[in-house]
Automatic annotation (TrEMBL):
SUPFAM superfamilies: Homeodomain-like (SSF46689). It comes from the Bacteria. This is DUF433 domain-containing protein. Coiled coil: none annotated. PANTHER family: SSL5025 PROTEIN, SSR2962 PROTEIN. Pfam families: DUF433 (PF04255).
Length: 76
């Protein structure tokens, strides 16, 4: 559940969604996952995060993309 795990503060990280009032953005976590890093690797890099934080980042991204069309590269 993302409630309380994802925060948005205009005074922190330019208002980007962050994990639990840290300076770790949802985008940073998603980028690491997209680059092939596993949960264990990310948690080693950020020992103050928990697995539930990473799941919350994924859930947050899922909610943002529901029912929306995401532009993809156009065929040549």
């Amino acid at each position: 559940m993302i409630v309380g795990r994802i925060t948005v503060d205009p005074g922190r990280m330019r208002g980007l969604p962050c994990i639990r009032d840290t300076r770790v953005t949802v985008t940073a976590v998603l980028g690491q996952l997209a680059a092939g890093q596993g949960f264990d690797q990310i948690l080693d890099d950020y020992p103050y995060l928990e697995q539930e934080d990473l799941l919350a980042a994924l859930e947050y991204a899922t909610l943002l993309t529901q029912e929306r069309e995401i532009p993809l590269a156009r065929p040549a």
